[in-house]
Amino acid sequence: MAVVTTALVAVVAASTGTGPSGAAGALPQQAPGPAGPTGAGAADGPLTIAGVSPWVAADGTFEVRFSPTVLPEGAVLRYTVHQRLREGRAGSVRASLDTVLDGASPGPVLRGPVEVPAAQLGDPATGPVLSIAIDPARGTSTRVYVPDAGIHPVTLELVDVDGRDLWTDTVLLNRLPSSPVEGADGAPARMAVTLLLPVEGPPSLEPDGTATLDPVTRSAVASATSLLTAVPEAPLTLGLRPNTLTGVVRSGSAADEAFVQALRAPAVRASVARRSDVAIDAGGLVEADASDELLRQLLEGGATLNEVTGREPRVDTWLLDDTVSPAALPVLAGAGTRRLLLPAERLRLPSGVSTQDARSRALGLQDGQGLTVTAEDPFLTLRLTDPRRDPGVRANQVASSLMSGWFGAAEEGATAFPGPSAVVVVPPATDAAALRALLPAFADGGPLTTDPAAVPTAAARLGGRAATASLAPRVPADQDGPVLATRSGRTLIDAYRRMAGTAEPDLELWSELNSEILSTQMDAGRRARTRAAITADIERHAARVELPPQRRVVLTSQDATVPLRFRNGLPYPVQVIVRARSPRLDVKGDDTKLVTLRPGENRVDLQVTVRAPGTALLRLDVRSPDGVIQLGRTDLPVTSSSISGVGAALSVVSLLVLLGWWLLTVRRRRRDDARTAGNHPSQRRGPDRAGTGAPDRTGPAEGSGSEAPTAGSVGPGG
Hints:
disordered C terminus, six-stranded mixed β-sheet
């Protein structure tokens, strides 16, 4: 996956000071420095260009400032002013400019060569200065006739007293229009420029929590420290990866501490851009129905940036790699984003909109929730960091490249403004002298500005129509696995946080490790190790809460107390849920209780009521307050010799029922026995046996002819 070297953000809120009157964009005074070329491969010779006026008014003075040096006696500096660059065969002014910067002929001569004795350039010990006064109407012996606004190459040559060439170079004179240029809103026509300093790397924490910055990232941190310290007044936008800052803070090294101090220094005028905590696949997260994870990354990243730098991150420009998708745009817009920076290859440009337009204008993003987009311009970075050029020449080339976009818009008229927008990526290893030489290009009142208010909020107009672009199709990487791992890890971490509050210092580390799981720079193996490390660490902490040891509990009363002894081996209190259940005991209140365990031994009295005597198990289940973390289960044998009033009443009722049943059974059995013997208990006795108590055994006379009564028949009176 291609990654944008520069993730953009909102432009900075401050601009540089104004140069002397009559020389708009005049250079700041340079501190004395060593003579000769700066940096490997700089132009060889007695002169080093420290700075060039980035732009000049129609009747102003163009200056070229050199580093302190010693010039040969009798030497002469020649300058030749060439006609302004035009589109020509190159297709655009910017294309023509690039060919000149790459060594092509500067074009037809407008004035020159003009010779200036080295002795007239000022004190070599403080830095010679070549001043060229220009005139828009007619030339004089002291002023150079420059009739047209635009970019004019200026060739410089140093020759000795014998006319031999000692040194040569080419700079660019950006002559502004004679009349002020205003935009459609009536404000001065300006190009919004972002100076972006990116510092980021792969995940900075190992699964065990150790902070590790790879060599490239560590070099970037050291270089950024030097650059911020050397040029604190630079209106940079810091594109810091929050996770990288986490590693910087946790490393504890002196070099990393110096970086943090530089970020927090009041003299540093840089602003901070909001970024996701780690490099993520924004389109993939939305595709995986995980927009909440995208927003969480922004929130967590913003909090880290604020905490480490002491500066509130700007949110209006989305510092993104190339993973954005149309589905992600509403999410970004809802989070406050107004502008995107993407590589040009991620944009699909309609007819009439060139790649250079995308790099120098704010384009409307089709179906983009009102967002605009500007493509990064890698060539500006190459110009600024070219070691073959003097620092002042690098800055002059970058400023002139930006001015080519401004001139193009100015020729279109007021409707082209606001609209011009660009970004200059300033790598951490950029020469501080080159960056310092670039700052006058953004002086108040000039055509280039770092004022955030100048950033276009709507699409620029090209040929009278709004210039738009759309996102090129992209197949996002599958994010289901990383999302699932991240969410499950967060659930576990949040469960421990509910148990321990904020007292556990490792909570922050676990959250930072869990955030890394979404990084597009993390492979599946490291992701699994990170997830396992978080789980194991939390389990080790939870295991320090010891449940009551197994022992027999004897209860001798109906309402009793079961003492439960916990041990908290952690150095801070924890809250746990204790659930107690037993078939012979009723727990008073609720069988689930929230208990606070202080460090050390803790006694928790469980009030119970005995339902029935005997022996049973009291089952204890101890968990975190949300039930996610199970600290353990244990069974305590409980023996009871007393029963409750309800139990006693039930027992008495049972005995009465049993007694009644027994009496009824005995009576029924006697009746059954009597029937079996032939005499019903209700049968009356005979008169001749009355009072004797003996049965009447007299039967009828044999042969009488009467029948004997049958068994069960009723006698007289019956």
